[in-house]
Design a protein that fits this description.
Helices cover 47% and strands 15% of the residues. By secondary structure, the chain is an alpha/beta fold. The strands form two sheets. The chain has a seven-stranded parallel sheet, with helices on both faces. The chain has a six-stranded parallel sheet with strand order 10-9-8-11-12-13, with helices on both faces. Helix 3 packs across helix 19, helix 12 crosses helix 17 and helix 15 crosses helix 18. The longest helix has 18 residues.
Length: 401
């Protein structure tokens, strides 16, 4: 790999210190995000499974959250420690500025402070005032691109440039940066002048014990005129393009039932759209992560047709692990997961391309369907398992100390 790109995992491993060293790690939630929100939206179970693996290796993990009532979850998360919002400040940014001092003992003991996303990085920078020896790791589960700041966060003018500045500052001051794809690494290098030697690629991961491979017999179902089940998972915003899938399903002769998991501002519009085009769509809202695997197993096809995005979509990984056939849009985060016709199908985020891809799936034999979904499962086990991701992260921490 040339100098422009991040270090390889082998380079990280070769420089690590004593593997038996006990680490104290503080994980920083994104600004304003509470553990209560994680629990309600179903993120809690997945994140807990990840950090439980770190604790089982003898390390300490604490979670700095923005929920004043988050201690109610301490028993659920033990032995992980919850550091909730305390004090009289009512604005989360102001609280972020004093949080390392409120929880001084945890930060003084910490070896590593890691942001869950870049929007939690302010605390990491300030934490060095409490403990100059600690190492700040900026994790970007998805890179907060300028398109995200403009189009999704709706920031303009001074608010836009302020957001860009703080992203740049976090990139500059971090001891190490974790991204999930090479394209995200390249973006940080190009747009924020990130030091490539600080960047480490650790993909998003799947608990392969929770997600079992259960492929569908799609050709047999079609031959028997059985209903096929299609799953959409994600935040209900217009950019996800779920409404385009509704339009496509209404045009296909095969009887397809659609299930939508997730919630958001676009839900009522989507429900009206489903009624308008005359399809059956079941909106389940947010589902706990430990229940998601069951829903994937019950569906034949998963479609993720979003218009743009960064990071590594967990929906694609979850579908690949479960045996459901994945069709996802041709965005850079998907291009590094799917190989056209080998472990899924890539479509353009428009109705014509989505329809062509779905019709291609419906025309497959069971042998073709199983070959592609089995390849997807193989990729998960050998590239994106949770155990592998945890070990890579711990190796990075040891190398920093």
């Amino acid at each position: 790999m040339n100098a422009k790109h991040p270090q390889s995992n082998e380079q990280t491993k070769s420089s690590r210190p004593n593997l038996q060293s006990k680490l104290d790690i503080v994980v920083l939630f994104s600004l304003g995000i509470s553990l209560q929100l994680w629990q309600k939206t179903g993120l809690g179970a997945r994140e807990k499974a990840y950090y439980d693996r770190i604790v089982k290796q003898g390390h300490n993990v604490s979670l700095l959250t923005y929920g004043k009532d988050d201690l109610q979850y301490q028993d659920i998360w033990k032995p992980i420690t919850v550091l909730p919002w305390i004090g009289k400040l009512t604005h989360f940014v102001k609280y972020a500025c004093v949080a390392p001092f409120h929880h001084r003992q945890a930060f003084q003991q910490a070896h590593i402070v890691k942001s869950n996303q870049s929007q939690g990085s302010l605390v990491g920078v300030l934490a060095k005032l409490v403990n100059p020896k600690l190492k700040f790791v900026l994790r970007c589960g998805w890179v907060r691109t300028k398109d995200v700041i403009k189009n999704e966060e709706k920031r303009t003018g001074i608010k836009y440039y302020r957001a860009i500045f703080f992203e740049w500052l976090a990139v500059k001051l971090a001891n190490a940066i974790i991204v999930v794809t090479q394209s995200d690494a390249d973006y940080l290098i190009e747009h924020y002048s990130a030091n490539s030697r600080k960047i480490h690629i650790i993909p998003n991961s799947i608990d392969t014990q929770q997600y079992q491979y259960q492929p569908s017999n799609i050709a047999q179902k079609i031959a028997k005129q059985e209903v096929l089940k299609l799953l959409l998972v994600g935040r209900l915003v217009e950019a996800k393009n779920f409404h385009k899938v509704f339009t496509v399903v209404s045009k296909i002769s095969q009887n397809i039932e659609v299930t939508v998991i997730g919630d958001g501002e676009y839900r009522e519009e989507l429900q009206r759209n489903a009624e308008l085009v005359g399809i059956t769509a079941d909106f389940l809202g947010n589902i706990a992560n430990d229940e998601l695997a069951t829903h994937y197993a019950q569906h034949d096809i998963v479609v993720m047709p979003e218009a743009w995005g960064s990071g590594m979509p967990k929906v694609v990984l979850e579908a690949m692990a479960s045996g459901a056939f994945i069709v996802a849009s041709n965005i850079r985060s998907v291009q590094q997961l799917l190989r056209q016709g080998e472990n899924g199908l890539i479509c353009e985020p428009n109705t014509e391309s989505i329809q062509a891809s779905l019709e291609k799936v419906l025309a497959m034999s069971d042998q073709e369907f199983t070959k592609i979904t089995a390849t997807a499962r193989h990729d998960i086990e050998f590239r994106y398992s949770m155990d592998s991701a945890v070990e890579k992260e711990l190796n990075l921490y040891r190398a920093l100390l």
